[in-house]
Amino acid sequence: xxxxxxxxxxxxxxxxxxxxxxxxxxxxxxxxxxxxxxxxxxxxxxxxxxxxxxxxxxxxxxxxxxxxxxxxxxxxxxxxxxxxxxxxxxxxxxxxxxxxxxxxxxxxxxxxxxxxxxxxxxxxxxxxxxxxxxxxxxxxxxxxxxxxxxxxxxxxxxxxxxxxxxxxxxxxxxxxxxxxxxxxxxxxxxxxxxxxxxxxxxxxxxxxxxxxxxxxxxxxxxxxxxxxxxxxxxxxxxxxxxxxxxxxxxxxxxxxxxxxxxxxxxxxxxxxxxxxxxxxxxxxxxxxxxxxxxxxxxxxxxxxxxxxxxxxxxxxxxxxxxxxxx
Amino acid sequence: xxxxxxxxxxxxxxxxxxxxxxxxxxxxxxxxxxxxxxxxxxxxxxxxxxxxxxxxxxxxxxxxxxxxxxxxxxxxxxxxxxxxxxxxxxxxxxxxxxxxxxxxxxxxxxxxxxxxxxxxxxxxxxxxxxxxxxxxxxxxxxxxxxxxxxxxxxxxxxxxxxxxxxxxxxxxxxxxxxxxxxxxxxxxxxxxxxxxxxxxxxxxxxxxxxxxxxxxxxxxxxxxxxxxxxxxxxxxxxxxxxxxxxxxxxxxxxxxxxxxxxxxxxxxxxxxxxxxxxxxxxxxxxxxxxxxxxxxxxxxxxxxxxxxxxxxxxxxxxxxxxxxxxxxxxxxxxxxxxxx
Lengths: 326, 340
What we know:
By secondary structure, chain A is α/β, with parallel strands linked by helices.
């Protein structure tokens, strides 16, 4: 690869979303459900973007439209600058291999009748990679990589694994095709504190050893802080704040981010006022979607949708009245 | 049954001193599985005081849920329960099922992790709460409905008159958990057990539900038992703490005291495993190496020894839970910050 091509590769983000929206038509509802609206962000090689928000904010839908299951209603998902919607057949399959997912509940994403060895081998076999011996070798390698001794665990079935071990198998499956991007969708949310720490450390080790790039989706801000270089905060289908993780956690500009941080704050008596419920995605509030729960909402917030605008270097916020002006 | 005069006197004194307290004394639970007995809970003693929250903290399999299910009488016939659990001086262990069922409604209530699976999806939530009210009080439909609305209001369901007509699927996870708490409150229980009540919820909702439990225990003077794997949550929302490992209580004290001076290395390990919001990104987390022991095997010595960074010669002998400082008990030969 020439120096120019190398530099070009470095400047093209591994993943980029441009104005991505997804609507679902739900029986019994006249208006479509707007799961995500106009979401744009990019993830560069070797970096981790954490996506946080409450249930129903659209973070999992974002993950799904990235892997084109389902395709977005509007907007583009680009993998290394190539629009996934423009790809067909083998080219699309190759591109999809680059992106793998780790799910929340390891037990329900693993076939209970299969042995660990076969579960990890499945993606390799489906894609006809290597000879049978090479496949077996690769499975052993993957199990070692996620900290499972193949001799001890290779022939077990999911029910004979602990939650942490099952999640390790899920990670090994995701790594089987040597992806560039791994999407972790609440991958540690259902684990015990002690097991969660082990899996988070494993993900960080893999990130360093394999140069993996993560899109890390979670509702727990503390966990996201731990793994992320960049953070995107979603509310009711929109990105409300986006920036370098240290900046966002130090000086959140969106009132929603601030309330999320207060909820996990160690400081007793921090603002944990009852901020009400997320409105329905069928009829989101006009203007700023957060205004119905926002203590700082004014008339303008009902009239005008706040754009995600840059308020400082590496810091964008969608709010008419951000908490800090830098 | 207490028959002797001395026994009756002792029992009376006991009940005066312990009004509405739940005292669990040396409770053990063994499950008879096909492959031999599994010792899930060993010699657990706890005390739940009215108006206070006791946190029981431990990993999956530590015996925390089995302990409260044994007290509630919810374990099946494969469980052998020994020891004592007295509410208001009255022994619950071994109480006939029909009597226990009455106590369960009136005195002891429970809220589970997943509210959706505990609610009837085909009934309006108001009807479900009203049904719980009628179960405990002899009132008509109209009155029980208005009681239900008031209960929903007390757990801060907004616009309860309207929301009472909703079905469970129309509510968010946090609202469903509030409905479960309303049902649990319908009989004004002395003790409310909450088994990982916020694990399935978002952070914002978690904080709201835990704050609600804090308020309710004070308003109704009821004891709350909060079961969680997250020592961080327990530290913020309990008055007393009991840390369980491999079926035993390994450290217990008033929460402030315990968090201020953790003695048992296992408790410290649980604390260190919690990601901190003020730690820099990508800093490695402390983990507890290995996994908890197999409960089907009797362990000699300290059950945590195999994973403990401070293990020493004496750990081959089982350490007993003993008061090392006033009000602070631990089961460890080499407690942290104490010269031994």
